[in-house]
């Protein structure tokens, strides 16, 4: 069809092979079909290169889309040979070349410098990356005059803006920085100006220190590959990272990029993937959307890249099954073929993993525990005992989220933001993000004295991190434990979370031991964020006839106190979420108070979602909140079926706890468990613990033991 | 495999043909596969015939399931020839024969007489029907002794209970009565005792008057086929109705049952189907679940029956597409083959229809209007201007529900009940069903003086019905209008609902003109039940720091007054539900007050779902609530896309209204509509109306006209 050519990210051989997939039911075939339908639909709209608009407004969206379709149509021209795609790509690029310099710079709205098309330079870089990719696919088809015009009036001004005018932003170790270097390198490659590739790889100074891709990937990730802002930001940075890595591989093979720094590219992709819930949605760590998942464009590209350059892995194929498509590129082709070669692809069941944080891996960790029941359902437990997460961090160290039966059960609120919903403050972060979403009380953990960890001070929080105690990620008894020192002055916290598969129970039992120590008496609020309908409780609740907020600050001002009552020895609340029942049982006493809350107080613009929580309040110096969550039964309203709405666990007792150990008893129908945890920071797998509570001696080896009396 | 035989509802030829579908991808093939998997899974559990338990408890559920699987396994024995199914069916039947008479009668819990297996005779009849069907499939395989035992110790006692002990319940024109006669007839046929067939068809007296199937189907349905309790109850009655009709067809062909009474069987099935939303879910008219849909077993059976005995119809095939299966029976075979014969089956797009109520069709009607936009999305409007609906009726005459974009937008609460959720009051109706769900304020209409229609008195309500004014069910301007006289003393109400396809709008525009007339001043509360997040409003809302309920009675005691503010000339509220934006604009003034409410007040057991409404309050004698609802834009959080969050309509003005006519103006971006409605009960399609408001004359022919100034 055309001369043998090499675009920035595909060569002729790959193009030929991708062509063979047209019309096939392979992942690549289906991806191509989607790409064609999507691109054709867009091409059917009137071509428009507008001026300025607010973020989320028409022009903003249109520029974003134009950039995306320049790339898509460019690739489709090479793959299908249909010149309509080249013509469309050329028309758009020529219009941008004509208009770009005539557009003044946008107004600056935040710390990000403004571009000409967008308010944020970041968006301009995303646009440049896609426009450059599209250009590289059709440059041989353009006339020399057209090429000249596009380069001189569009790409060079953009490159100058990035590398000269805003050079301070280009040389920056930051996730936005990856977009900057990737777009400049790809544009440089597309227009044949290699200096841009090199300054993007090595930084403006060329020293691989202050900036450039190699410095970034060396410094942004922990040894585990974890990115400190969490998966929501990671998946956004991974897109240019993966594309740039593929470019380095093609243009600078001598750098052996996929083995660079102990395979940091592969490791960080895998770390990101390993945070996802079984349904592919990312836990909303830090400021994050509740719905971002592995179908995101960046994750699709990263997974395809991983499949090509790293060893085959069943879970990668399982994730491709969730994604249902691949990157239309040589990498995606490899993944598509590996997928086709298997008879049956199972849904992914990722191993439990502890991802360390900090450049040296010594700033705490994020723990992910997964356990499958015998019907294949995966329970996933996430605990944050790592770093704060910079400007987007939430004050929730030792917080947890919990997922099973295809839903998040103990829930993260996510960010206070309606992304791109223009009437909601231009789609930007809302005040309630600070006043509620990032506060400690919005999470699943203990709030002390109705305040916030580190007094909601980012600098204080950034200087601290959780301290890992143990992590056991295999078998039918898994668990993790960590400490947080002085996140509230004078208070030491330790949380130990266990998942136990028990023959009497349909799903793993979650055991939560949240221990606080202080020399002073404090008010401890143990909170669980749940969703659904309360089915029963053994607490005599006083339902308020008039609702007041739970407090005046630190997020409490947004919580309605809906009902409260004296706790029981074992406080029990059951609720129905979707098709599943959950029962929480917590060791308590009538000195404790249970509150049922709902968000929405002091929310004049209805910015918050209306959500519910349980808060168990206690005054104490040293205290252990010992709870279990049982997952049980089945409800299907449409067919009017309900099974096992009550569950089997009946009691949870604290035998004793101190700085050395905690001993708990859990019993119910056919269940009698003793849980023993070593609380000493210097414990090892070999530690022999012997401790006496109430004239009874408990002994075990290692961090923990669970003994079952009846089974 | 076995001798040529005829079971109650299948003959050898049908069995042979169904066998041919095993392993095929046809609807019948897939239905068989599901039936086999489901039955095999159940057969893998230990066989158990328990005693008594509360409703929703183990024994209750187990008996229900046993009955169902006796039938399923029986049919599978004939279709697959595998004797394991016959053995399983025989084992269960023999255990029931052994135990049945030893079980005492259950305790009576409501007006329904108790059975031995269940608290309600109704459940016993359902069980009998399925057990008889299963028996009829294996009786030739059983030994004479086994047959004798099952008949003498199980079926005869059941038949005696139905037709002798509880004869008053057998001869009853009621939806439960259909289960009684169907189960007795099917059992009679299965054991070869024809008298039971005849008494079931003609009643115990044999006069086709007080009881029996023919009397029931003659008297239960309106001429339109509508069943007064609404689709939730209709779909439950349709299951035995369809099975009994098939039995009559086979055993008493001389009755020509499918042409009986002007094809009442076909008509009532079609009426039931024609209420469903585009996604197959039934609007929750009266006490009803929000999730009951056409995948219900009864609807699957009825659709298959319809497909065999009535003319082919594209929408029947479209509904089969939603159901994804057919009745495993000769009727289902016909539907499966008709389905296979088509190349492409579209989703159903049912015509708009007005279903009259009352035995003579003169007790008002239920109106269903459907309009498709140019992307194929169907907007459906439902208005109740018929009868009260007996004991399960809600006090919501002139109430509406509205559906588009695959979701219910203006919502019905449904019943206050957690069906089969044992800890929630045994799964029975909750107090909140009366105190909230059935009250006028829980619906989408006007509540007068914070009371309830007909003072929540069923007898008063049963004596009244809505009065139809007009119904226009075709084209790009559709509408319906009706009156309600004295549902509040001295107040006449008229509601006119229009759907208009307008070239400037992505979806049909809903126009709602709710007019009230009285000689006294009243408080009128116009309420809309919505779901989702408020995006913007032009009302300065005072958000309360302390929440109080909206009132003390008639459902108001369950509503929190979350926020309130003075209305605007055009009061506007936009919200986001799922992936779609909705904007409500209503002609009002600063004398009116807008309230934002949330359910949950005075709900000590968390029995209510937490839901939201908008209430526009006005003091007036004669008043017109003129509103529009615009459906616009698109939001997808996962991909962070938002389009057109504001919509195009800007104003709605009332030009004038009185008993003769209402004139309204609606305008916005590229939109300037004048809506003219004739309010006179004696209007016809030929009426010429000329009326003057504000020195301007408006003239049109027929019930209504919509003029567009700019298009």
How would you summarize this macromolecular structure in one to three sentences?
Chain A has 711 residues and is of the alpha+beta class. Helix content of chain A is 31%, strand content 27%.
Quickly list its features.
homodimer, 711 residues, alpha+beta, 6-stranded antiparallel sheet, 17 helices
- How much β-strand is present in the residues of chain A? 25-35%
Largest sheet strand order of chain A: 7-8-9-10-19-16-15-12
Number of helices of chain A: 17
Largest sheet of chain A: 8 strands, antiparallel
Radius of gyration over C-alpha positions of chain A, nearest whole angstrom: 27 Å
In terms of quaternary structure, what is this? homodimer
* Spatial separation of the terminal alpha carbons of chain A: 71 Å
Molecular shape of chain A: elongated
Average pLDDT metric of chain A: 95
Helix content of chain A: 25-40%
Question: Which structural class should the secondary elements of chain A be placed in?
Answer: alpha+beta
Largest interface: A-B, 55 and 55 residues
| Poorly predicted segments of chain A | none
Number of strands of chain A: 27
